[in-house]
């Protein structure tokens, strides 16, 4: 397998996982959230990624999340399932489940928390990919996973049979650029922090963008990708500036990205928000008020 084995491209929002009043996955809100994205013309959905709080879900909940998403999407868009786990057996089992129910690919980050060598990271992916059938999108997000997929390591991992793409979410332009140069002929390259530098990434040749901001900002998905790809410089620049301001808003004043995303969805009346799983806490008081003020300033509220 290589980049030509799949057709993944364009904007694929990383969706939230909504919970009901009892703390269980709210399947109705999840379905409504997915339908909203499909109506906006996205090419795919990433379920159970970092924005989806996968790390706070049981294996059974993660599997059910994929089932609900697939039931809603059907064949209307690509479904990428976030199946990465610390252990090989857990990653394999969840990926096999995703394949069984019809997901199109697996988003797999390296084992997290413990710091690993490049050889240990490679061995983990080699062991996993030898036991699964789905195409794999590598996931570089060292801010959450600790372990870093450098351009050289991504190129090495790209030699594994199932690896067809990479989501580069380091937030480091030099690492993104280096990764793109190293692998774009063999792997599809997706920009993670598209709210920060999605436009130059797409102008460079990135195949797509995967971000949390389309959960609250319609134009931050396919519209941003299309403007950059089609050479609409003024529109692309304006969208990128909005994305930068939203990023700063969501991650300042004591706020962090995932609770801010859900709070903004609630403020905007968008399905899929609500209370995050602990240890994250819902925004309240001055933090929520300042978020609302920032959304008003951007014309979103």
Structure description:
The protein has helices spanning 27-39, 59-73, 88-100, 118-129, 142-145, 151-157, 173-183, 194-204, 222-229, 233-250, 257-268, 285-297, and strands at residues 10-11, 44-47, 78-82, 105-108, 136-140, 163-168, 188-191, 208-209. It has an eight-stranded parallel beta sheet with strand order 1-8-7-6-5-4-3-2. The chain has twelve helices and eight strands. The model has no long low-confidence stretch (mean pLDDT 98). The termini are far apart. The chain is globular, with a radius of gyration of 18 Å. It has one domain: TIM Barrel, CATH 3.20.20. The protein is 46% helix and 11% strand. It is α/β, with parallel strands linked by helices and 301 residues long.
Short description:
This protein is α/β, with parallel strands linked by helices.
SSE layout and pairings?
Blueprint lengths: L9 E2 L15 H13 L4 E4 L11 H15 L4 E5 L5 H13 L4 E4 L9 H12 L6 E5 L1 H4 L5 H7 L5 E6 L4 H11 L4 E4 L2 H11 L3 E2 L12 H8 L3 H18 L6 H12 L16 H13 L4
Parallel strand pairs: 1-8, 2-3, 3-4, 4-5, 5-6, 6-7, 7-8
Cα-atom radius of gyration: 18 Å
Number of helices: 12
Strand content: 5-15%
**What name goes with the CATH superfamily?**
Aldolase class I
Characterize the largest beta sheet: strand count, sense, and whether it forms a barrel: 8 strands, parallel
Q: How many strand elements? A: 8
Order of helices and strands: EHEHEHEHEHHEHEHEHHHH
Helix coverage percent:
40-55%
Low-confidence stretches: none
Strands of the widest sheet, in order across it, are: 1-8-7-6-5-4-3-2
| Average pLDDT number | 98
Shape: globular
Instruction: Give the CATH topology.
Output: TIM Barrel
